[in-house]
Amino acid sequence: MTYVFWHSYLMFHQAAYIRALAELPGNTVHWCVTQDLPAYYRDRGYPVPDTGQVQVHRAPTPAQIAELASLPGSVQVFFGLRGFALPLAAFQASLGAPVHRFLMTENRYEPGARLLPRWLAYTWDALRYRRHLSGVFCIGHSGRYGGARFFSACGYPRERIVPFVHVVDRTPVRHDPAPRDHLEILYVGQLIVRKRVDLLLQAFSELGVPSARLRLIGQGPEADRLAQLADRLGIADRVRFSPGMPNADTVAAMADADALVLPSRFDGWGAVVNEALMVGTPVICSNRCGASDLIESGRNGDVFEAGSAPALRESLQRFCETFQWDRAALAATESHRLGGPAVAARFQQNVFRLLAPGPVTAPWKPEVAQR
User: What is the pTM (predicted TM-score) of this model?
Assistant: First the structure.
């Protein structure tokens, strides 16, 4: 099978399974991008991902786009058709060619005033594009705030919407946290309103575990306000702010922590969840994070109701009092389940299922707890 992926850049949250897909017998994989990696991600310490046997095409010309987008019998995967110039140009170039088209997109079911106009925009896209697509790979998630619900409401056939994931490469680290006399709870991400770090500070201040410590790794416009909030809540001496650091160092900090928390009001996915699980660190995240699909309460973390400080505090309390896990075993299990080869195999399985003649069979479901 020939696969052609269209992205704005070489996404480090997609490279692992695309590379593994190229290693499966009989496959040829092309990856077309506008650039290797935006400066924004380079400055945050992300490397250009390893692409292995994948044939990479950087800044393809219109003639190259037309050629690659019309390879007979190929599977064309477009990462977003709204606001992404190269995927949209390739999609338009593919029309009329004997190819199979798939849309890949993150969940767009974000609450608030922008939800209705966003739904109207994506409904318009569905009216224009759905007849040309064999399916939609939706990255996060299958719950009541999930992408399957959002995109089916926009008009895409629900039976052709496949829950999908972001994928990261495993970073080799030790699995035992450094010896200490306290529990370390970690947040990694931007310090912006949408991430609800203020909610985490509030819940942490009410946590009945005086020995617990909270570390916040990241930077952003909310940094000063959050530091002031920690001081007002009387927990400044138990909260440590760390600026952004290279990704490898951040993953090492995850491996050193007892739990990672992602309290976002909304996240299309949240790849820090993958990174933490793959080094054996359990995760507590809100049910409006796409990556909550990966969490099975009591086994690898917990999921709480977004926006609720009491719900987050209860999750933290349960974790501190009752959660037990084998860090090395958790790392091994999650590294296999979320690794490139396993995701590539599931991706190809769904492509074959959606292209098979006859009625579409039940879609593959992520190995997650049902909520």
Answer: 0.89
